[in-house]
TrEMBL record:
This is DYW domain-containing protein. SUPFAM superfamilies: TPR-like. Transmembrane segments: none annotated. PROSITE patterns: PPR. Belongs to the PPR family. PCMP-H subfamily. The keyword Repeat applies. Residues 562-654 form the DYW domain. It comes from the Eukaryota. Keywords: Repeat. PPR repeats lie at residues 145-179, 246-280, 316-346, 347-381.
Length: 654
DNA sequence: CTAGGGTTAG
């Protein structure tokens, strides 16, 4: 059009600007903005709205800065003036003439104009925030309508400027414009983020009063908002009342369940969604796969993976990251690695998921190597990435490397360590026996250390049998977290192990007074696509008698091989025989015995336990793996232990 | 011309 000499009018630009937005091409977009100004149609409502939307969407796009600096000097004065906005360049008729000149050089002129404004533009991107661009457009608009306000409000909300967004809603009301469905669905995510269910409900009420509550967009936002405020019941209710549902409404309700650990419920909605014939969007899998990862239901994860491959969603970075995580959590680290290697692009989350996987399997050097590759790739590690690499170091006892990463986090990336980083460091130093150093690190924290950080050190005190430090640590834990009975359980174990019976008894009395109820630890094993769960002393399993018999036989053989049960930490006062029996009834042993009797010889046995495998069981499983000649893989909350031929992959360092 | 959901976390 430009080449033919036809001067575009205001009706052209909204569509063109939308194209630039959808193409995610800031250079082109700002070139068109230049054109808008030159042609003199920047005062039109729709054009201004489209421009603001474009700049809001371009926020966060980076990568052209260096090029921009190089080109800055070559920039034409004309473009510089209107893009930096210090003075408004009058658009005179001769300029318009040149730009719309009907000549053979038309195309060249056009591309020249684009090129020079590109250079200016990219630089402008660097020197002004998107906010300034939007603001400039917004402030100079002669007329603003609801769409103008909604655009700026959504732009602020999506770019994390929450207070700014909310302020603009109030300003909007002051100019006698009513917030509509667009406004509400833009600001609801803010209250989800703030976990402010009261404000969220206020919006819900407003939506009902104005008959917006059957709007699918508002519905999804409400479902999400309630879910993030731990009010799943309300999420389900909103979903139920929606007259129409699209794939996003379904995905929101599935995610709502998963975020609140209602995995079975979430899977139920997932199946319903498929039955209703809703088109499966990539996001659907991003909620369901993590559920498989949590439940470690490998068979379901594999089915989903097969489905994903068939519909060609393999290359979606969200899905691929979830698959990496799912396979790693289900014990298939090679498969996770394979998917990771096949991804054409890695972002910070996929690197982190892979590192966590390696950490989980004790492959610390792989995790560190991944971290280095990530940095070399120009991907900035964030808070979570550092948790991953520190956890990996902790599981392999790499104290020096961990210290280096811990320091690098603040020094090189300006991320201040949070409680997870301190917990990982405390765990690591503690396992390495550097209890004093761990204590000092925690004591040096910028904020009051929560109980969880001290607990890492307490576990180390137990392994290294340091009663005095443990007492000190428990005191700190109880001060910040008086309900933490777990700490008392460990303390009582530590006293028992040191044969300080009186102290052990004293702690147990305290526990009783606090209304101590032992939360049972649970172990799961998947046999022929069915998950079997065991808790300590539970005899409700149909094969309990056989399991018990098998354990008895194993026990004899183990003792012949030199296994001595470690009775020192058994909680209750009872005779040795009773103590033995109580150890034998630990959930992981029941699960392993069930695995042995219900799978063919030689099959690997995989167990998931919801808390740390106990000291005695760790030793016992080594014996069992040798006696039955099987590989036994036990995953506790934080890591995998591979037992084979009487040895464990993590040695005695666990 | 404007709006909603999703991946990693001891």
């Amino acid at each position: 059009m430009r080449a033919s000499g036809k001067c575009p009018d205001q009706r052209v630009f909204p569509a063109v600007l939308k194209c630039c937005t959808l193409l995610r091409d800031p250079k082109l977009g700002e070139a068109v903005h230049g054109c808008v100004i030159k042609v003199g149609v920047d005062g039109y409502l729709y054009t201004g709205n489209a421009l603001m939307n474009m700049y809001a969407k371009f926020q966060g796009m980076v990568g052209l800065e260096n090029q921009a600096l190089e080109l800055f000097d070559e920039m034409h004065e004309l473009e510089r003036s209107f893009l930096t906005g210090n003075e408004s360049e009058p658009v005179d008729e001769s300029e318009k003439c040149v730009l719309s000149n009907e000549s053979n050089d038309g195309l060249k002129l056009r591309s020249d104009a684009l090129d020079s404004s590109n250079q200016a533009t990219v630089t402008a991107n660097r020197i002004c925030l998107w906010k300034d661009n939007v603001r400039k457009v917004f402030d100079t608009m002669p007329i603003r309508d609801v769409v103008s306000w909604n655009t700026v409000i959504a732009g602020n909300a999506q770019n994390g400027l929450y207070e700014e967004a909310l302020m603009m809603v109030r300003e909007m009301v002051d100019t006698n414009l009513r917030p509509d469905a667009f406004t509400l669905s833009s600001i609801l995510p803010i209250f989800a983020e703030y976990v402010d269910v009261n404000k969220g409900k206020e919006i819900h009420g407003y939506a009902i009063r104005h008959r917006f509550d059957s709007d699918m967009f508002i519905g999804s936002s409400l479902i999400d908002m309630y879910a993030k405020c731990s009010r799943v019941e309300d999420s389900l209710q909103v979903f139920k009342l929606l007259p129409r549902r699209d794939s996003i409404s379904w995905n929101s309700v599935i995610a709502a369940c998963m975020q609140n650990l209602m995995f079975d419920e979430g899977l139920k909605y997932f199946r319903h969604m498929i039955n209703y014939g809703v088109k499966l969007m990539p996001a659907a899998f991003s909620s369901v796969l993590p559920a498989c990862a949590h439940l470690t239901t490998l068979h379901l994860g594999k089915q989903l993976h097969g489905y994903i491959t068939r519909v060609g969603l393999d290359d979606n970075i969200f899905i691929a990251s979830s698959l990496v995580d799912m396979y790693a959590k289900c014990g298939k680290i090679e498969q996770a690695r394979c998917i990771f290697n096949r991804m054409e692009r890695h972002d910070m989350v996929s690197w982190t998921a892979m590192m966590m996987g390696c950490a989980l399997h004790g492959h610390a050097h792989d995790a560190i190597s991944l971290f280095k590759h990530m940095e070399a790739d120009g991907v900035r590690p964030n808070y979570v990435a550092f948790i991953a690499v520190l956890t990996a170091c902790s599981h392999a006892g790499l104290a020096e490397e961990a210290r280096e990463y811990f320091d690098s986090m603040t020094r090189d990336y300006g991320i201040s360590p949070g409680l997870e980083h301190y917990a990982a460091m405390a765990d690591l130093l503690g396992r390495a026996g550097k209890l004093q150093e761990a204590y000092e690190l925690i004591a040096s924290m910028q904020f009051e250390p929560p109980g969880g950080v001290w607990s890492a050190l307490l576990a180390a005190c137990r392994v290294h049998k340091n009663v005095e430090l443990a007492e000190n640590v428990v005191e700190k834990i109880i001060r910040v977290d008086p309900e933490n009975i777990g700490a008392l359980v460990i303390m009582s174990n530590i006293y028992s192990a040191a044969k300080r019976w009186k102290d052990a008894a004293r702690v147990r009395i305290m526990m009783k007074e606090m209304g101590f109820r032992k939360k049972p630890a649970c172990s799961w094993i998947e046999v022929r696509n069915k998950v079997h769960a065991f808790i300590a002393g539970d005899n409700s399993h149909p094969l309990y008698d056989k399991i018990n018999e098998a354990l008895g036989v194993l026990s004899d053989q183990m003792e012949r091989e030199g296994y001595v049960p470690d009775l020192s930490e058994v909680l209750h006062d009872m005779g040795d025989e009773e103590k033995r029996r109580s150890l034998q009834n630990h959930s992981e042993r029941l699960a392993i015995a069930f695995g042995i009797i219900s799978t063919p010889p030689g099959t690997t046995i995989r167990i998931i336990k919801n808390i740390r495998v106990c000291l005695d069981c760790h030793v016992a499983i080594k014996f069992i793996s040798k006696i039955v000649g099987r590989e036994i893989i036990v995953r506790d909350n934080s890591r995998f232990h591979h037992f084979k031929d009487g040895k464990c992959s993590c040695g005695d360092y666990w």
